[in-house]
Amino acid sequence: MKIAVPKETRGGERRVALDPDACRKLVQAGAEVALEAGAGVAAGFPDAAYEAAGARIVADATALLGEAGFVLKVQAPQARPDGTHEADLLKPGALLLASLFPTRNLDAMKRLAARGVTAFSTDCIPRTTRAQAMDTLSSQANITGYKGVLLAAVEFPAYFPMFMTAAGTTLPAKVFVIGAGVAGLQAIATAKRLGAAVTATDVRPEVKEQIESVGGKYVGIELAQSAQAGGGYAAELSAEDKARQAKLLAEHCAQVDVVITTALIGGVVAPKLLDEATVRAMKPGSVIVDLGADGGGNCVLSKPGERVETGGVTILAPTNLPATVPRAASTLFSKNLLNFVMAFWDKDGKAFRLDWDDDLQKGCAITHEGKVLHGPTLKALQA
């Protein structure tokens, strides 16, 4: 089977879908692997490293995508600088594996379906024990939480840790993390390692022990109804619980120095948690890092990809943070993809095996044989 890895075309994307180590394992399994020239350079992987792993380097992206039976990518197919669209370049009937975020990339999903591509989206893989090693949402969110705290520490006009000097003592920064999924837990742990006093909240009170295990102090409300959506995701709150949570957030944000928001509904959509009044009530010099920016942002004043100052409060809304740590992010992402491919690899036929009786494949299949299979994406396309 011919497996192709193109260079990512989204602006600022420095990751690559396959690192040399995973490439070597696919070649050993019998796959023919080809990469677009320079695909891994921004992540610190030169073409020579892939050639040493047994891959072929192809200069022409159109030829690369047109001959591949299976394409591995980081991002959903995009329009290329020459005006062509990657989805339109794929061979009819080809397989695609990437973090597609299909409801955010509806045009690409329509193109993939029209092309007859069988597309699997790693962000839609069911959150089961078996799928943990394939879960790109978790592996990349871990990086997002880590890098978000570093950005906050750079922006904050004081120290994170307590320092005792001859000139006096500086107290530790008070950091409040909203959302205790993978990104939130990593943010708590990183802020704690930097010496901050960390509090955290989540609409799922059952994560209290996880918050405390990484050094945070839990604050929260008693919910009138469960906010657990299944698979470890948070569900949307009732109107009553939203009001009570908003009151808690406003009161606590006014007391801290740094707020880091990581909340996502279903791992995709960012609920609006911080309104303008909450931001205005924060102390001058405070910092908000909105890690929900890729999903629209948790703060109403956030501008994804931009830095905003209002009333003495700085709001950062970074997008695609994993791309800013490209080597580590690519290595983890690559292992996720490799684990998915090898879970369905036919050793005798040396090819990927479609199995529609398997819950993992069914759960993350977005398009197949000209149809959109993914319910939320289909609903969005019909709206």
Computed structural class: alpha/beta
Strand order of the largest sheet: 3-2-1-4-5-6-20-21
Mean pLDDT: 94
Strand content: 15-25%
Task: State the helix count.
Answer: 13
CATH homologous superfamily of the largest domain?
NAD(P)-binding Rossmann-like Domain
Poorly predicted regions: none
Compute the gyration radius: what is it?
A: 22 Å
CATH architecture of the largest domain: 3-Layer(aba) Sandwich
Domain module tally: 2
Describe this structure in words.
This protein is α/β, with parallel strands linked by helices and about 375 residues long. The chain folds into two domains: about 1-135 and about 325-375, 3-Layer(aba) Sandwich (Rossmann fold), CATH 3.40.50.720; about 140-325, NAD(P)-binding Rossmann-like Domain (Rossmann fold). The protein contains 13 helices and 21 strands. The protein has helices spanning about 20-30, 45-50, 60-65, 85-90, 105-115, 135-155, 180-195, 210-215, 240-255, 275-280, 325-345, 360-365, 375-380, and strands spanning about 1-5, 30-35, 55-60, 70, 95-100, 120, 165, 170, 175-180, 195-200, 215-220, 230, 235, 260, 285-290, 305-310, 315, 345, 350, 365-370, 370. The strands form five sheets. The chain has an eight-stranded mixed sheet, sandwiched between helices. Strands 11-10-9-14-15-17-16 form a seven-stranded mixed sheet. A two-stranded antiparallel sheet has the order 7-8. The longest helix is centred in the middle third of the chain and has 20 residues, at about 135-155. The mean pLDDT is about 95. Pfam families: AlaDh_PNT_C (PF01262), AlaDh_PNT_N (PF05222). It comes from Geothrix rubra. Its EC number is 7.1.1.1.
